[in-house]
Amino acid sequence: MELSEYRATFERLSKIVGPQLARNIVDQIDEERTKAKRKEAKQLAKAEQIRAMIRQELAL
């Protein structure tokens, strides 16, 4: 999560639930997004690896 987005989300949430809970929520959101990005990167790498194997098999 971009720092500006983190701050904006934190500021909005802190007005509603308080700063400590807002920080916990924003940290959790950031962690979930980071995990999703890593998972997507792994999937793309695996797909590229499969494409490379297919190209090699087809001698392209």
Q: Short description, anyone?
A:
The chain is an all-alpha fold and 60 residues long.
Structure, explained:
The protein has about 60 residues and is an all-alpha fold. It has one domain (about 5-60). Helices cover about 90% and strands about 0% of the residues. Helix 1 runs antiparallel to helix 2 (about 20-60). The chain is rod-shaped, with a radius of gyration of 19 Å. The relative contact order is 0.10. The mean pLDDT is about 95.
Question: Separation of termini?
Answer: 39 Å
- Structural class computed from helices and strand pairing: mainly alpha
What is the overall pLDDT average? 95
Output the number of helix runs.
2
- Overall domain count: 1
Order of helices and strands: HH
User: What composes the largest sheet?
Assistant: none
Q: How many strand elements? A: 0
**Shape from CA axes?**
rod-shaped
Oligomer: single chain
Radius of gyration: 19 Å
Query: Which percent range fits the helix content?
Result: over 70%
Tell me what portion of residues adopts beta-strand conformation: under 5%
- Poorly predicted runs are none
Topology, element by element:
Layout: H1 3-17, H2 19-58
Helix pairs in contact: 1-2
Which key terms come to mind for this protein?
about 60 residues; mainly alpha; 2 helices; about 0% strand
